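Repro:
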Amino acid sequence: MAGSVRAITTGLIAIVTIAAFAATADAWSGHRGRSYRGGRGYNRYGARNAALQRASASLNSARARLYLAQTNAARELKRARQQAENSPAVVTAKSEYSEANRESLTARAAAVARLKETNPEFRDLLAKCRSLRQQIEALAKSNDTSGKMQSLQTELRGLARKTILMEDQAVNADQTLKESDTRKASMHAKTQSAKADALNSVVSDPQVKAAQAQLVQAQAQARQANVRYSMALASASNSGYGGRSYYRARAGY
């Protein structure tokens, strides 16, 4: 009887041990499965984060290349323009215009000088203008409040208009000045034409063309990098951690 009891007791202990071992094994198996799924989600999150970092680095590099290309293109364009403006044709045209302008000013001064010598009325007007200016200056220094200074200023403006009209009539009738002004206008047109031709040649400058091509390429690369970064950012933002959390509480765990 005692042997039967011991046998039954031993069997029950064995059954309990086996059941406990099985429960432990099932629990470990479930935990490992969930850990595997969580690790898989973490790996996907890490992959998306790495893709975002690569896209960000690529965008920064593209922006740096674009900045360098813009700087280089601007530098080459400035160099070519300066070179064009200092070309022999432009320098010669500018020199000829400066000479023609000096000749015109000299001819104008000579015409006015002849007017002073030959026209007593003009000399009288100039003398009256000088006298009025002196009186106005004296009244201004004395802080005159009588209103006389305003009257003198009005008279001076009227006489000054007369002298200017007489000067214009004299210089417009001067043949030497006409010829000088005609040459001046011609040299001005020549200078403008030379400048335009020189600046038009800038676009065909080899270094300018190369810099512009690099700039276009850098702009395209920057746009592409920006698109890739936006897509990577959207993917990382929308997916969260592997799309969903694998560590949320579940029933029975």
